[in-house]
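hiii so um. not sure if this is the right channel but i have a protein structure encoded as tokens and i wanna go backwards to a sequence. like what aa goes where. can anyone help
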């Protein structure tokens, strides 16, 4: 392992990588419970979706581990699964089989774009200050997700969001977890996030929040009801083309944003600002998406929660390998893994958000043509609940501000092309709505 994953070269060791893998898995294991709940609303078998979720995560993360040697984990993406279920199927009236077909085609297109280095070129076209803002924006975004998960931040019809009920046991447990992990970090305890998650989970048992049902069936459900259930009859309709474009766009920029943000925070970028083994990393989510569609789940993407493992020192594919193994194990121990409450992962997400926000100090705030697009990026991500939207509007702002401040020559050709494509993505749905 030392030789294959180049542990010494990356300044890490087996113990650190294993702890990082456990930590990443613990912060993203919620997808095993959430994804079946969302996709089953379309009529898909929930048990089969659980198995497909775990298997697709294993396949994609193994590719990331062995092909890219990067500490990133993949699984069916949040937001993309909601779009799949609530927009394409329940909103537009298409069958879940048609939606799976669109996901499969998206994976094929991703693979082609990756082979011809188009996705890698897109990453390189993003300005350096926006790359730094992406990391900070993702930090705010995942902290916001964590606070929501525990009920610390809740919906409010007058102000959109507000503080939750402090007497809610989930809120109390989350705050206890924040204190525990904060103290562990202050004392520089290795594996602080993982230890904190486990202690908080145990404390949740007497509070009635952590619930373990050991009487459950530990055998993984069959994927037969949803595997390879494709329907190509509607793929040439205008609606499906827009659906396909949306899947492509959101997944591309969620993945790009995550790779850039986490790599920047973990100081893994090359000297020229590029991501090491970027093409191989992009292969992982392209192949993962195709495999996921075949198995019966929505788009597979690189998870921002990988930042938690990187915060614990994960630097190589060994971290990803550990995550893949744990997803495989979860197939047979689902009642135990699914017992970890969101209140126990909230503290980890909040503090990882803090870690990821540190590149803010490296943004050039003295130059408004750089600072304003960067600020749009980091503030739009949590407020629009979308990594992709933060990137889109920051790049458009960057190009327009540079252009009208007579500094258009500072924008390279690839960034101009990217901005035009992003503008088209925004305008196309509006034109369709008017027709």
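sure thing!! here u go:
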């Amino acid at each position: 392992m030392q030789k294959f994953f180049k542990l010494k070269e990356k300044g890490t060791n087996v113990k650190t990588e294993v702890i990082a893998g456990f930590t990443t898995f613990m912060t993203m294991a919620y997808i095993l419970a959430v994804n079946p709940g969302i996709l089953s609303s379309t009529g898909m078998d929930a048990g089969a979706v659980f198995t497909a979720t775990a298997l697709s995560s294993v396949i994609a993360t193994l590719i990331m581990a062995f092909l890219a040697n990067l500490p990133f984990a993949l699984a069916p993406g949040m937001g993309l699964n909601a779009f799949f279920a609530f927009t394409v199927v329940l909103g537009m009236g298409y069958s879940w089989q048609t939606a799976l077909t669109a996901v499969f085609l998206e994976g094929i297109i991703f693979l082609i774009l990756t082979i011809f280095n188009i996705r890698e070129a897109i990453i390189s076209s993003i300005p350096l200050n926006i790359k730094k803002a992406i990391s900070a924006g993702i930090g705010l975004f995942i902290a916001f997700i964590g606070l929501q998960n525990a009920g610390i931040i809740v919906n409010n019809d007058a102000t959109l969001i507000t503080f939750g009920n402090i007497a809610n046991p989930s809120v109390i447990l989350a705050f206890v977890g924040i204190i525990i992990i904060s103290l562990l970090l202050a004392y520089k305890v290795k594996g602080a996030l993982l230890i904190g998650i486990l202690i908080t989970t145990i404390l949740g048992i007497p509070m009635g929040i952590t619930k373990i049902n050991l009487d459950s069936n530990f055998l993984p459900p069959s994927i037969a009801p949803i595997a390879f259930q494709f329907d190509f009859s509607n793929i040439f309709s205008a609606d499906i083309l827009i659906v396909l474009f949306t899947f492509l766009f959101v997944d591309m920029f969620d993945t790009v944003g995550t790779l850039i943000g986490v790599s920047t925070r973990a100081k893994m970028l090359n000297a020229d600002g590029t991501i090491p083994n970027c093409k191989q990393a992009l292969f992982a989510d392209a192949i993962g998406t195709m495999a996921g569609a075949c198995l019966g789940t929505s788009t597979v993407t690189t998870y921002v929660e990988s930042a938690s493992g990187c915060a614990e020192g994960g630097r190589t594919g060994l971290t990803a390998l550990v995550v893949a193994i744990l997803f495989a194990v979860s197939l047979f121990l689902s009642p135990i893994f699914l017992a970890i409450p969101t209140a126990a992962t909230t503290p980890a997400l909040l503090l990882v958000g803090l870690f990821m926000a540190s590149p803010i100090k490296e943004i050039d705030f003295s130059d408004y043509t750089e600072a304003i697009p960067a600020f749009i990026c980091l503030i739009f991500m949590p407020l629009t609940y979308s990594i992709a939207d933060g990137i889109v509007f920051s790049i458009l702002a960057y190009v327009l501000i540079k252009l009208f401040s007579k500094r258009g020559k500072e924008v390279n050709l690839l960034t101009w092309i990217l901005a035009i494509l992003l503008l088209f993505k925004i305008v196309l749905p509006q034109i369709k709505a008017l027709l």
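oh and The first strand starts at residue 74 and ends at 76.
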